[in-house]
Design brief:
The chain contains 8 helices and 38 strands. The chain has 657 residues and is mainly beta.
Length: 657
């Protein structure tokens, strides 16, 4: 039979069917049937064909390998040319990807066109492999059909149809609900117009209220349009959400993800397969994540007519909105600026560092400082600190802090970042500003970076020009400079760019010393049961003493060499102290010989002067390296460990007179 006659009969049958069933079948299904008949007629003619040509594709060309999104090369360009030869499957109407502007990149627009082709030829391409809807991948079945078409003389049809730009795949998808449903979309009030997205931020720029009625609807695509392609210059990602649920994300979005409809319309298609329940209300949001470095610019986003397509339970396409919704304007603003937060290193305590009497002690750790870059990451360029020096008695070192430590160093872990000379021109125990320059320390966003400050300590000679036993120092933060990931300078000269502070703990320098370790701290309450006798509490604090570098002498008299006091000094009546030790007793001293470790227990029995809670706190430990007397006084004023940890629990005591 003549091909024209076959086609005419087939077309007439289809058109008659369309007239007879116009109430239940939409035009898209009819067009798909016509396309299938065309493909079947073309296949029948294949044995006698002389070959067809598509402008730009070499005669006799055949595709030999599958392709998908991300594929590149000449075969992609020829595929786009083939698809553009039919208005029903064109990659793009204008601009990149359109006829005469084909590319060698297989992007979402190419995939969408392949989907159209697959659905228009579903019987020949999809059905044999068990599919009911196009995938957008150029696989073996699709490749065979296209290759056959390239070998087949095209049918000269006596009619044509225009592309339905709102249809991109088959309508045979169904939901569990077989009833017809409708969808409507309206612009939602949140977010408001003129949303600002700063560098590194992710924000919703538009919201849509989508309602279903009558039955379930499965959304198949969600198209939005931007006013300029340059949205991809400033956006890192663009994502579609239903409420807090992410449905699809263009991660690392590029201009190839957009389809140019006009010079002011660039469509972004979210390919989804998302079921909406019957008679439900949903809130969809388009979120934009800005790149770290952006410039100020403004653009619009729109949901055009028929931008959302779904399939109801009856297998019918449902579209919304019927007309374009009002555009939302949003802006990429001047980039975010980092705020660097300075803080103390948690858990730091006053401590002793052993130094040498025969040479320089290098890299004595004196403090840690925590830095955190908030909002965006940054790079530390310089850091300034002050170093305070005191003598063992707790007063300012008027010889100058630089007689105790003369070089400061900054470390990141084991890596030396910089060093600076310590000077004290005023000889008041406070250093001149110590600044570490030429730094390049990366501070990741919202991640704490801990840096360590160390010093070099000259030989201990106990003179006015050198360190003395028991000299100690502590470090405080002064200033810093940096540059954030958006290339903004971070400095204290700009209000709000630096926050927080840091004051380090005391670091005591000795060539010999007692190493103290808390063992236990207990409180025992005694109640006499007599009407005129108050409750009492006995507090005991037990600790070990290790002699490092020399013999350590401690007087045996409680309250003189070692002391503890009531935690409630206001309501304390009387107390009674005692001291026991496993150390050797020589005369009026306990002696812990060098290298030995001995235990000490200081007890204090407290009687109240009024009802209240009472315990026992450690007070001081006085020691020397001979029997000459207590030279070094370690108290709660200079050792924070005693205050924070060396104390018993408290108990409630009844006062009775």
């Amino acid at each position: 039979m003549n091909a024209k006659k076959v086609l005419a009969i087939a077309a007439a049958g289809v058109l008659f069917s369309a007239a007879a069933f116009a109430q239940t079948t939409d035009i898209n299904a009819l067009l798909a049937q016509i396309a299938q008949l065309q493909a079947q007629i073309a296949a029948l003619q294949g044995s006698s064909s002389t070959g067809t040509s598509v402008t730009g594709i070499p005669a006799g060309y055949q595709f030999t390998a599958p392709m998908k999104i991300g594929s590149t090369g000449e075969a992609v360009k020829y595929l786009q040319m083939f698809l553009n030869s039919n208005v029903a499957t064109q990659v793009a109407a204008t601009g990149v990807g359109s006829k005469g502007n084909e590319t060698m990149y297989y992007g979402p627009a190419t995939a969408a066109a392949v989907t159209k082709y697959q659905n228009l030829n579903a019987a020949a391409i999809l059905a044999p492999v068990g599919l009911t809807a196009g995938t957008g991948n150029f696989g073996a079945s699709t490749m065979a059909h296209v290759n056959a078409a390239l070998k087949t003389t095209p049918v000269e049809d006596d009619f044509s149809f225009e592309d339905d730009t709102t249809t991109d795949d088959t309508t045979t998808d169904t939901t569990s609900d077989t009833t017809e449903g409708t969808i409507t979309a309206t612009l939602w009030s949140s977010p408001a117009n003129n949303t600002t997205v700063k560098g590194g931020e992710e924000k919703s720029v538009v919201g849509y209220k989508v309602k279903t009625q009558g039955g379930e609807v499965t959304l198949k695509r969600f198209d939005v349009e931007f006013s300029t392609r340059t949205v991809t210059k400033y956006a890192q990602d663009i994502a579609l959400y239903n409420g807090s649920e992410e449905l699809y994300r263009f991660e690392g979005i590029s201009s190839s993800d957009l389809e140019e409809l006009s010079t002011t319309q660039y469509r972004l298609r979210f390919p989804i397969n998302y079921k909406l329940a019957k008679d439900s209300t949903n809130y969809f949001y388009v979120k934009v994540k800005a790149k770290q470095i952006v410039s100020a610019t403004s653009l619009t986003i729109t949901l055009n007519a028929n931008g959302i397509r779904g399939v109801d339970g009856a297998g019918l396409n449902q579209y919304t909105p019927s007309t374009a919704l009002a555009a939302r304007t949003f802006s990429f603003a001047t980039e975010q600026t980092a705020v660097i937060e300075v803080s103390n290193y948690p858990g730091a305590q006053d401590k002793v560092v052993q130094v040498s009497e025969s040479g320089i002690t290098y890299d004595a750790e004196t403090g840690k400082i925590n830095l955190k870059s908030k909002t965006v990451g940054s790079t530390l360029k310089s850091l300034s600190v002050y170093i305070y020096g005191k003598i063992a008695a707790g007063t300012a070192n008027t010889n100058g802090v630089d007689t105790t430590a003369n070089v400061a160093k900054l470390y990141d872990g084991e890596t030396l970042l910089g060093s600076a000379t310590i000077t004290d021109a005023d000889r008041d125990g406070t250093s001149d500003l110590v600044t570490f320059t030429d730094l390049s320390v990366k501070l990741e966003k919202d991640t704490i970076k801990t840096l360590t400050i160390k010093v070099d300590v000259p030989q201990v000679e106990n003179t006015t020009a050198t360190p003395n036993q028991g000299d100690y120092i502590y470090v405080t933060y002064s200033d810093l400079t940096g540059e954030d990931d958006n290339l903004n300078t971070v400095a204290s000269t700009t209000a709000g760019m630096i926050s927080g502070s840091m004051t380090g703990k005391n670091v005591h320098f000795y060539s010999y010393y007692p190493e103290l370790t808390l063992v236990s701290a207990t409180a025992s309450k005694t109640t006499s049961g007599l009407a005129t006798t108050s409750d009492v509490v006995e507090g005991k604090i037990t600790f070990n003493v290790k002699a490092v570098g020399a013999d350590i002498y401690v007087t045996t008299t409680a309250g003189v060499g070692v002391n503890a006091t009531s935690s409630n000094s206001t309501e304390k009546g009387t107390d009674s102290k005692s001291l026991q030790s496993s150390a050797t007793t020589v005369g009026s001293n306990y002696i812990v010989y060098s290298g030995e470790t001995k235990s000490f227990t200081i007890s204090d029995t407290v009687t109240p002067a009024a009802d209240g809670y009472f315990g026992v706190n450690f007070d001081f430990f006085k020691w020397n390296t001979s029997s000459a007397g207590a030279t070094f006084d370690w108290s709660t004023a200079t050792f924070s460990t005693f205050v924070d940890e060396w104390k018993t629990p408290t108990v409630y005591l009844d006062y009775r007179a």
